[in-house]
């Protein structure tokens, strides 16, 4: 994860992340669905890791698309729901390594320095990689060789290198198959709860009495593919994909087809759209509130299932279930359901 003060200053410079109801609880269910160390040989269209051993996976403590939140106000309910601040999608992955670890380019190319602790390497055809939180040992314009030239060493206190891949300026997910290899993931993301609100910052609604326009929200998370050492152990990461549909509770007939709520399998939405995808109440792992870091506090990732509230007038009065599925970049997935009752107009 980024050092937050450095993360904020970079984006400023470049302009750029359940109520239990006894009467219907019985309806709610959940189901889960070696190359030489000096130079590795990446897949034809991919690349190996930027730290040794190049041809072996390393722990990732923050995923592409994770929320990045810095709140201006202290850690209160009011601040969490209404505070201004810096909110963005994580535009890379954080590879967990020891301070002082040597970092190498994943492809040969030309160096540019984005800051005193960020190195970019342009390899032609719009392919650029960035290596953050390192003390550079290269200079602007220098030609570097993949897996041979040391770009720099991880700064003291960071215990990770942030890695970004860009395609013609657009950040893309390094964990997409055919990019960073080898990478395997057998963990399963999950939806922890599903809830309804009258607005993004409004009161939570009881699921047995929904009418009018309703905001649909799911609390979802994933577990890193490999255990992460140190302070970041057991902290969540974001799934790559959140989808949802609505079924009739009595027979499972789909009345609103499967829709994507959040999808970072390829790229991320623009920064300005942060609160269109994440719902208020979201905060990153060890988020900052009023300049104070919430050490060891796990993040909460709340997803707005649609950009606009659901108009329940689209549904006849009756009993339904909202089915939400979380999927990771390797296709592992699980779903959860929440029953709700639509009561538009008089009676049921």
Number of DSSP-assigned strands: 24
What is the CATH class of the largest domain?
A: Mainly Beta
Query: How far is the N terminus from the C terminus?
Result: 49 Å
The number of domains: 2
- What is the architecture of the largest domain at the second tier of CATH? Distorted Sandwich
* Rg on CA atoms, Å: 22 Å
Structural class computed from helices and strand pairing: mainly beta
Largest sheet: 8 strands, antiparallel
How does the overall form come out from the CA principal axes? elongated
Residue windows where pLDDT falls under 50 for at least 5 positions:
1-44
Brief sketch in words of this structure:
With 348 residues, the chain is mainly beta. The protein has helices at 4-14, 77-82, 274-277, and strands at residues 30-31, 60-62, 67-71, 85-89, 93-96, 102-103, 109-115, 118-122, 127-132, 134-136, 143-144, 152-154, 160-167, 170-172, 190-197, 213-221, 241-248, 254-263, 288-289, 292-293, 302-304, 310-311, 318-327, 333-342. 6% of the residues lie in helices and 35% in strands.
